[in-house]
Amino acid sequence: MTLPLLGLNNWAFAQVDNAQTLMNDILIQETIDLREAYPDSAIYLFELYHERFLAEGDTLRAIEVLIRLAGANGHRANYKTSYDKLWKALFLADQIGDDEAKVRVYINLGRYYSFYKRREEALRYLYLSLDVNKELIQRGTVSRENLIKSYYALCATYRELSEPELGKLYLDSCLTVMPAGKRYINEHFLEFERAFLVKGEGDYRRALQIYQSIQPWFAAHSPAYQVLLFTYTGDTYVGLNNYPEAEKYYQRALEISEEYHSHIDFTPLIYERLSNLYVNRNDFRQAYESLRQMKDLDERFFDSRSENNRPLLEIQDAFREQQEQTQQLLREQRLTELEHRNRVWFLQRAILLVCLLFLLIIGFLYFNYVRSKHRAEKRLIRKEREMEVQKANELLELKNKELAASTLKLIEKDEFLASIKDKLAEKKEGLSADDVRRTVRSIKLSSTKNWEEFEARFVAVNQGFYECLNERFPKLTQGDQRLCALIKLNFSSKDMAKLMGISVESVHTTRYRLRKKLKLARAVNLEEFIAGL
């Protein structure tokens, strides 16, 4: 089976790219291994690789080489060149927008500033690396263990700044974040920091045990780092008042520095320690000699008059200039864009405001129209209801008058018949007794029948009167209810007596009892109260 030509070419190119990538990694690693024995050759090769990677467009490896160049020059105390390389690396990382590369540059910048005891600048870059790392973790670009690089740099920096409590804090952070089986920072470096902290707490023997236990690993894998290891081991022996051993380790640290051309900037501190040690041993001649060498080296590496470091305090690198120009251009573009947006925003808001005002005016006019129409409708409905109520009241009043008139006629009829009955009963002359009795019996006076007729017609006219009365005063008797009906029709006591078949005095008594049952005060008019039911 043969591959298509295009597929074969793509595959072949991919293999070539992979091989080239592997070869570049090998070249970088070989140069790193060469740095300790032949630092000048390593620096020369790194410079060549930097130009080559830039020409090939491999910016990430160009940044890697610049960081290595900064380290190689830094170990030789050539800080001005180190800073230049780091700023170039930061400029490239900023160009390609690689935040991981920026983190590495920030860490190295912070460490170099700490060598000059420029605490504020050192911590600013180290914490900046920590913030960027955390942002990368939130974006899912790197794992949480990537924080170890920033934590370890902060731990070592606080050691050099003589702030062990903060160093311990970040050492604990390293150990907390570091997963089992992975080595973002080799554990021997962390043990070195732990030994320093233990020594600072006064436990010199425990610190000495840790230093001695990790020394074989450093001798095999990072011999140049023994400059620091032997120096702090000498400090531990000083704490134990074992000056001969301390001197031996200090001298061994100086030998390692010279042998591997590394940590040359640290040698003034070693000579200072030796000077103090000789003073404690009353060997003032050697103390003076060590102090003189310390002073000469310190002036060479750190004095602002040094030809090597004079430009360091006036860092005017291309990155900053380019950054400032870029930032200025961006600010101007942003300002122009904002002005344009402001004009558009103002026009949009002006149009929107006019539209809103127009809508508000239309809405206000429409609202007033609807409200006026609604008010007119309400007035019309209210008048119609008032007229209906008035008509109903007038009709009710008319019917009540008719009812009262009809009732009065019934009463008058009964009175007339009663008078005839009385006269017939008195004048029996000319009439036989049987005829009189027959006539008298034929005239039947029935107040009950009259009341039933009245009540039927009253209820028809005054619907709900008895229901209201029973609901409010459930203990009223039927006679009380009849009396209330007659009072509502404004019957006189005499007419009430005739219709109810009782005397006028009994009507007055019944009215009095009714007031008590209704629990009316003296000031309340009985007729008005019942009329309102």
Structure description:
The structure is a single chain. With 533 residues, this protein is mostly helical. It contains 22 helices and no strands. Helix 4 crosses helix 15 and helix 6 packs antiparallel against helix 7. The longest helix is centred in the C-terminal third of the chain and has 109 residues. The chain is rod-shaped, with a radius of gyration of 59 Å. 27% of the residues are buried. The N terminus is likely disordered.
Outline the fold blueprint.
Layout: H1 5-35, H2 39-56, H3 59-75, H4 79-96, H5 99-115, H6 119-139, H7 147-160, H8 164-177, H9 187-200, H10 204-221, H11 226-239, H12 243-260, H13 267-280, H14 284-302, H15 318-426, H16 433-442, H17 447-461, H18 465-472, H19 478-488, H20 493-500, H21 504-518, H22 526-531
Main attributes?
mainly alpha; 533 residues; disordered N terminus; single chain; rod-shaped
Total DSSP helices: 22
What's the end-to-end separation, in Å? 112 Å
The geometry reads as rod-shaped
Average per-residue pLDDT, rounded, comes to 78
Task: Please indicate the percent range of residues in DSSP E strands (runs of 2 or more).
Answer: under 5%
Quantity of strands, as a count: 0
Condensed summary:
This protein is mainly alpha-helical and 533 residues long.
